[in-house]
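Chapter summary example: a protein plus guanosine-5'-diphosphate.
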Amino acid sequence: MTGLSGSGKTAFITSLVENLLSAVGRPSRLPFLQAPRDRRLVAVTLQPSPIGGVDRFPLDATIAALAADPPQWPPSTTGLRGQDLSVRFFPSGVLGPDHPIGRMAGGIAELNLGILDYPGEWLLDLPLLGQSFEEWSRATLQLAARGPRAPLARDWLEFLARYPIGARSDAQTAQHAHDLYRDFLLACRTREQLSLLQPGRFLNPGELADPSLLGFCPLPSAASTRVRPGSLAEIMASRFEAYKWNVVQPFFSHLARGVDRQIVLVDVLRALNAGEEAFNDQRRALETILQAFRYGRRSRFQWLFGARIDRVLFAATKADHVPALQRDHLAALMANLVAAPTLRAERAHARVAATALASIRCTEDGTDVIDSRKVDIVTGLPQGSERRIRFFPGVVPVTPPPAGFWGERFTAFPVFQPPRLRDAAADGIAHIDIDKALDFLLADALA
Ligand code: GDP
């Protein structure tokens, strides 16, 4: 599973795992997942460590945060981590316990489910593998000159303008140029809420054995300058290559091992709220990210991916910010945003769906009267507040909004306090449509 920072990966994994654990004794937590609904789920067990030497997902810490008084949102995903589960179940049909063949075969089947979680930003680096430093510099500088990026790039570009990139340089100058570029990316994210920020590790480094691999930045007119030994251009180009082959490529090789189902989480509501540029930028970032996966049989990057993804789910998260009807709008908007990648995946015979879900439901649906008209609202407790609010989120557009929509900002969404967990493994976690998401991704594996 993946998604850009803040899209809800930590919340999703916590909810998925705890709700699967609880579904054995309490199938009503996941009413749309067929196996528990048919009472075929026998046991769900957490495996002590994920395969492949990946750090374990910090489930104990995320549960502790949600069980605190007052409950807290757990810290977000910063690196590659995994959680393996063993799911024991009675198969349906002839292999099930209700059939003579099933009874003879002993009945119980086991699914080993490995969940891999990492910042979606890392997938933004895939195109780098096919680009030279010059090509990447040119593309990145073109992007930096446009829209809300341009004023934020000023300090970095002014610094570079003072240093002829062909003249002899030193590590200190290179580091300063890198720092300014990183500041620029950070400002793009925090001030303008942009998403297409490369390299993906500059803002989400994870645990790198050698952090100096990040010490580069794109350079203007790198294409036209002959690269002299010891020049800024040479330092940056060689670091760029080292980053590609020592950081990016090994990560994609890791992903290639056996990923066959994919869920992509997207915080569509936040992008709507952030405005036209942020919304379109998130869409471009999504398209870049989705090039990374090998669906069905065809892919531009076949050499990277051994496995083949045959089911993909795009999920707009935090859907508890909007009432029921708006959640259908949100799912439709999600589907529209990924129409092109969906077509690509379907052509390669992968099954694709789009949905809206809430991993941890913090609100309840209600109605209110505004200007003498009855409207649907949600009620919830904003984080840090003493009183619940009645929140009218406005109308979520079903298709990517036309220019006129952006005149005024879409509703600013409050951060709602999550419900306090008592015994998550037994009771599960309140959610919206996690069960439908799981059914799409796993129904055949649990059949
Ligand atoms: P990550 O960076 O992808 O791991 O994102 P997180 O799972 O940490 O989520 C980021 C923030 O989004 C959380 O701290 C919550 O404030 C909010 N959030 C995530 N999931 C939900 C949800 O299901 N409902 C609500 N209301 N907020 C959520």
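Key point: Residues 165 and 233 are 5 Å apart (CA to CA).
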